[in-house]
Amino acid sequence: MPEPNSNEGNNTNQYMRLQQSQLIRANIQNISQFLNTGLSPETLDICIKLLEAGVHPQALSEVVVQIRNQVAAINNGATEE
Fold first, then answer.
1. CA-CA distance, 59 to 66, in Å (whole number)?
2. What's CA 53's distance to the chain center, in Å?
3. Which of 23, 47, 51, 53 has the most neighbouring CB atoms within 10 Å?
């Protein structure tokens, strides 16, 4: 009887983690849209990666708000000219 390939089990575990990760990220994006955060999927993905890397959630939210305010100020200045 052939011995089971240990890589097959490892690949299955990696695939399952990837599927779960994609499902979790999709659910987070749905929640983000429901809460009307205005974050694009790419921006939300970056925020998730920063949180996973250990960035403090409150600090991240404050930075996002500051960036939005600065972009709005720049856009308002550009439209007034």
1. 11
2. 12
3. 47
Alpha-carbon gap, residue 59 to 65, rounded angstroms: 10
Give the Cα separation of 77 and 74 in Å (integer). Answer: 5
Secondary structure of residue 2 in the 3-state scheme: coil
pTM above 0.85, yes or no: no
For residue 44 the two structure tokens come to 């939300």
What is the maximum alpha-carbon separation in the chain? 79
Q: What is the pLDDT of residues 47-79, one digit of tens each?
A: 988 998 999 999 999 999 999 999 999 999 876
Q: How many CA atoms lie within 13 A of 9 on its CB side?
A: 4
